[in-house]
Amino acid sequence: MRQTDRFLLIALTSMALTSFCADRAAAAEPDTASLLQPLQVFAAAYNRADCTFPADAYTDDATTIDEFAPFSWQGPRAARTWYAATTSCDKESDYQQFLAEHQVLTLGALATVRQEGNHAFVVIATKLTFQAKGRTYLQHLYWTVSEIQAAQGWRIDAQGWALVDEAPMKIDVNNARYVENGERSSDR
Fold this sequence. Notes:
The chain has a six-stranded mixed beta sheet. It has a three-stranded antiparallel beta sheet with strand order 7-8-9, with no helix packed on it. It is built from three helices and nine strands; from the N terminus they run H-H-E-E-H-E-E-E-E-E-E-E. With 188 residues, it is α+β, with helices and mostly antiparallel strands. It has helices at 3-28, 32-47, 78-86; strands spanning 58-65, 72-73, 101-116, 119-132, 135-150, 153-168, 170-172, 177-180, 183-184.
């Protein structure tokens, strides 16, 4: 084999490998917008205080872990039971001890997004503001979600909420805005 043929073979092989690797890297990138859709559907229903469970965001047997008793909801309709409790639509739930109202969930920055085939893992920072016992509170949480891709799109199959911190908020009466850590919050 002549040296020019060898260089040509090496160049073609390098181009093929580069193209193959680029295609694999592009295929490995998760479709973040699609993965966020069920989270956004949930947040919209939650922020409307909608007592109708957002079924198009969850699988039928989605599991939930949250910071209030019984702390874990598993089995058929478990996410529906959790949703009714956390939105105060279930007046008999243990969650009523908080007497929370005007709950607003804000989705923040993505911490982790992984997808392999029809399975995905998402961790997103969130802020939850709510009123309880005459005060407004702010919680920073991480929402960890496992998703499955169904025929209708991505669905939450399991979720957990991790409380990072909670604090009462002050209201800047002059500007009618909430104040968080001494700074005015523009997203309220």
